[in-house]
């Protein structure tokens, strides 16, 4: 599969295994944290927004994760924009049956 800069050209998500070990944020060891991916597709629909908002709310300033959803989650992103915390988000990849969106807490 060739890399594409157009997020609408992908046919499969590029999965990144989630491994949470030592958080290197601010520890001074010189290692960067690996990016996290939250695959929301298997979460039951009625719980999905609450689970993702909970994950976003647990981030420290500067932290983020890639959200893998069944579509571009515009209603969810609007909910995140109305939280008392400040986030930025961008669509990274869109394919048949999935979208990858990066969510990062900024304040």
Task: Write a concise synopsis of the structure shown.
This protein has helices at residues 45-57, 74-81; strands at 37-39, 64-69, 87-95, 98-105. By secondary structure, it is α+β, with helices and mostly antiparallel strands. It has a domain at 37-105: 2-Layer Sandwich (Translation Initiation Factor IF3), CATH 3.30.110.
Structure, described:
This protein has a domain at 37-105: 2-Layer Sandwich (Translation Initiation Factor IF3). The protein has two helices and four strands. It has helices at residues 45-57, 74-81; strands at 37-39, 64-69, 87-95, 98-105. A four-stranded mixed sheet has the order 1-2-4-3, with helices on one face. Strand 1 (37-39), helix 1 (45-57) and strand 2 form a beta-alpha-beta unit. The termini are far apart. InterPro entries: DUF2249 (IPR018720). This is DUF2249 domain-containing protein. It comes from Actinomyces respiraculi. Residues 37-105 form the DUF2249 domain.
């Amino acid at each position: 599969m060739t890399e594409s800069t157009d997020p609408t050209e992908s046919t499969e998500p590029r999965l990144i295994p989630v491994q949470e070990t030592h958080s290197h944020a601010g520890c001074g060891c010189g290692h960067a944290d690996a990016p996290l991916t939250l695959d929301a597709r298997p979460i039951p629909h009625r719980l999905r927004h609450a689970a993702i908002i909970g994950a976003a709310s647990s981030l420290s300033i500067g932290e983020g994760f890639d959200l893998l959803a069944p579509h571009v989650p515009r209603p969810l992103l609007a909910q995140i924009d109305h939280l008392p915390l400040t986030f930025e988000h961008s669509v990274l990849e869109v394919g048949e049956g999935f979208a990858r969106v990066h969510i990062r807490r900024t304040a």
